[in-house]
Amino acid sequence: MPLPIHCDLPQRTDDLNRLVAQWGFVPVKQLPKEGLMLWLDAERLSLRDAGDKKQGAVSVDFAGGGSRHRRLHGGGRGEAVAKAVGARGQSTPTVLDATAGLGRDAFVLASIGCHVTMLERSPVAAALLQDGLNRAVMDSEIGDWISDRMTLIPGASSDLMSDWSGERPEVVYLDPMYPHRKKSAQVKKEMRLFQQLLGPDQDADALLAPALALATKRVVVKRPDYAPPLADKPSDAQIKTKTHRFDIYFC
Q: Which amino acids does the record list as binding S-adenosyl-L-methionine (predicted)?
C-alpha cells in the first residue's frame, strides 16, 4: 500500500507533486496518528513512525553524519567491503549493488573511486536514496564526483539483472535484509523503521543465480555472522568482521 506523505511548506509543493507522481505516494494534510509515513521538510525527505514520537526519522545523508565520518575517518580501501569487491591498489571495479537499501555500502565504494549502479525495488527506499543523491550533488566536498560514481535504477533486481542490456559489471554486490537476532543501538536507531517497512527479503536466494550470470569477476554477498550462505551455496572465499561476513563467489 502506498505510504502517506506530508509537507506543510508551500515552497516545496512542486517537489511534493513530483514525488507523488513518480512514486505513487499519497499526499495528506492531516498527520496520521499511527503507521509509517514520509515527511518532506525544508531540507530532506524522511521516513517516520507517526505513532512513535521518540523514534528518530530515517533519511539518506551522504554529505554529513555517519557517511561523512566514515568517508573521512573510516578504513577506505582497508574496509572489509572494499576488500571483498576487490578494490586493491589502484583497482576500482565497477559494482552493481542489487540491494541498495539506504546506499551506505554503495557510498563507501563510490568514495574510493568505484562506479556503483544501485538497484532498489522499494519505492520508499528508492525515493529516500534519490533525495540523498540530489542533496549530495550540491555538497562542496563530494558533489563533483557523486553523480558520476553513483547511479540509481528503481526496480526488481532479479528482473533487471536477468534482462541486463548494458555493460556487465565486474562485481555484483548483494546485501539482502535478514532478521536481526541481536538487538543493538544502531539497529534500533537507524534501521528499525526501514526493517519494519521492508521486512526480510524472502526471495533473496533467487538473486544469486542471476548475479553469478551477470558479474564478470565476482559476486559478493554480505551476511550476518549467524546466517547461512545465500541459496545454501558455499562461497569460494570469505572476509569476516565482528558481526558480518562477506561471502565471495568468483566468476
A: 104-105, 120-121, 175
pLDDT, block means (10 residues), the chain with 251 residues = 93 97 95 92 94 84 84 79 92 96 94 97 96 96 95 97 96 87 54 75 92 98 95 97 96 93
The three-state (H, E, C) secondary structure of the chain, written as one string: CCCEEECCCHHHHHHHHHHHHHHCCEECCCCCCCCEEEEECCCCEEEEECCCCCCCCECCCCCCHHHHHHHHHCCHHHCHHHHHHCCCCCCCCCEEECCCCCCHHHHHHHHCCCCEEEEECCHHHHHHHHHHHHHHCCCCCCHHHHHHHEEEEECCHHHHHHCCCCCCCCEEEECCCCCCCCCCHHHHHHHHHHHHHHCCCCCHHHHHHHHHHHCCCEEEEEEECCCCCHHHCCCCEEEECCCEEEEEEEC
- Any known ligand binding at 175? yes
Q: Which domains does the chain have, with CATH numbers?
A: 4-49 (3.40.1630.10), 65-250 (3.40.50.150)
Whether 104 has a binding-site annotation, put simply, is yes
Q: Is 105 annotated as a binding residue?
A: yes
| pLDDT for residue 188 | 54
User: Does pTM surpass 0.85?
Assistant: yes
